[in-house]
Amino acid sequence: MTGNLLIKLLPFLISCIVYFALKLPEPSALAALVKCFPTLYLAFLVAIQSHSAGAWTPYSRRVFQGLLLSAVGDACLVWPQLFLPGLAAFAACHISYILAFGLTPFRPLVFVVAVGAVFVAYIYLVMPCLNGISLWAETASKVPLSMMAWRALSHPGRQLSTSFGSLLFFASDLFYGIETFCSFLPHSRFLIMSTYYTAQALFTFSVASQKAFRKES
Fold first, then answer.
1. How far apart are CA 207 and CA 62, in angstroms?
2. How far is Cα 166 from Cα 66, in angstroms, rounded to an integer?
3. Average pLDDT over residues 166-181
4. Torsion angle defined by CA atoms of residues 135, 129, 98 and 55, in that order, rounded to the nearest 10 degrees
């Protein structure tokens, strides 16, 4: 199954290479399409993989929804005036992933570490550069992000791919905040999007592993 999945991921990998190679100027509809295509393809792959395996589970559906909402956020952030709708789309995406990963077990130590790490990094590296509505919006957006990381990291044995994925998603968000609000970040485009695309691919990979997870449980 893993080898077959890797072959199916080839269009995703090619579309990522195309995104980095073209370096299309933003904002534009073409730039939005090229940027969103890798995530949209992953959503398509989740749907196809789940249906063909007869495992269109709540987990698969919520990861699928999260990927679609991420693509909406990607498109919005191409246009600066759509920054707030973009944040809202990503907040909804994180909520979908939270529901996918489940709310048990609670893991209070993981909660403290995950939430603390997200907010400490944000407070020291990004918050000093913010003011007005962007300050409140960015602060609020870290709540679902940190909750998503907490829930993903609460299942290290069963869902190692989602644990790594959540950390990469957090890194991508942090890179984006530094580049957008604070100062020039060398190779920011590559850092932001490579960590982001890899995180989404890991979440997608976890869907293919759900059958094995259910057997273990």
1. 10
2. 13
3. 97
4. 120
Residue with tokens 């269009």: 11
Helix axes 10-22, 188-208, angle to 10 degrees: 170
pLDDT in tens, 111-152: 999 999 999 999 999 999 999 999 999 999 999 999 999 999
Measure the N-to-C terminal CA separation of the chain; round to a whole number of Å. Answer: 20
Contacts of 136 (CB under 8 A, 6+ apart): none
Domain that holds residue 172: 2-216
DSSP-derived letter for residue 158 is T
* CA 215 from centre of chain: 27
**CA triple 82-84-85, angle to 5 deg:** 65
Is 174 in contact with 139 (CB distance < 8 Å)? no
Residues in the chain: 217
